[in-house]
Amino acid sequence: MRIIAHLDMDAFFAAIEERDTPAFRGLPLVVGADPLGGNGRGVASTSNYLARAYGIHSATPISTAWRLSEAARRAGKSPVIFVSVDMQKYARVSDEVMRIMRRFIPTVEQASIDESYGDVSFTESYEAAEALCRRLKEAIHAEEQLTASVGIGPNKLIAKIASGWRKPDGLTVVRTEEAEAFLAPLSIRGIPGIGPKTEGMLNAKHIKTVTDLKALTVHQLEVLLGKRGVDLYEKIRARDDSPVEEYSEPKSIGEQETFDSDTLDSQRLLTLLDALAHGVLERLHHEGFQSFRTVALTVRFADFKTKSRAHTLAAPTGNVAMLQREGLKLLLPFLDRRENPQRKLIRLLGLRVEKLS
Fold this sequence. Notes:
This protein has helices at residues 12-20, 49-52, 62-74, 87-104, 126-144, 156-163, 179-183, 196-203, 210-214, 218-225, 227-235, 266-286, 320-331, and strands at residues 4-9, 29-32, 44-47, 81-83, 108-112, 115-119, 148-153, 171-173, 252-263, 292-301, 306-317, 346-354. Helix 4 packs antiparallel against helix 5, helix 10 (218-225) crosses helix 11 (227-235) and helix 12 crosses helix 13. It is globular and about 60 Å long. It contains 13 helices and twelve strands.
């Protein structure tokens, strides 16, 4: 019998900040860019559940988050506390959580900084898997003072959807024979891989739930969505045989930053490029890699149009000066008419490395 668990930390960044600063507890809190009194740029990385009640979620523009906070304040509610992102701290806590998880489950696949899959087939029953995951949740709470939600199912797809079912601090079990019925009433957006564009296109055809989607044949889905349609045909029938893999190497490591104000000031751009290079190298080494071969630069203009350019080196390197130099070569054409003929101001700069070793 195959049994998979998916662990998802609850409002992870915000929960860490509440844990570390008790005065924040019981108040709406957003971790993200500085709102600058409503003029800030960037987005909310994480919001706690009180801030979500105001309509602030991950990726909400920080200026919008500020306006929602002000509207709540004028209505007599608590204004939002805005906290800057401390990724190094969150990564350290994530490492501790994953260490705890591996004490309970031999095979763990970390999917992101705050979620992971575990193969709990060794328990041999859903009852035993549930008991194990309850002890895991208790250990995380006791040792890290954080809550996690867990979904248990016959595969990764069902486990992931189930983990979001009773947040926060939830534990949801969906047995093999229950899986299709569990999916049937869900909105199609609840199926991983269906984003807002696909959702809009399907909604226009009066397809809103998984049950609606199941009325289509595999051929019809393939015509609508290409190869993704064939994959989706299997997913909505609760079929997913993807394995839990102990470690999956990242394909790239990158950093990006949004400017407080759009700019073409070469000094500001070069200063940020230097900081991005150091940040990327630090993360590269933290992930256990020594070198890279490809350098990629992303530029987003004030009108939100985005361009990326990349260069692959003849030999791998882990040298920060080399990364800075290659990043500079990619950036310079955006400072003149080669890549920026209209001399548009730049809103965001990103740097990443690929082909890691």
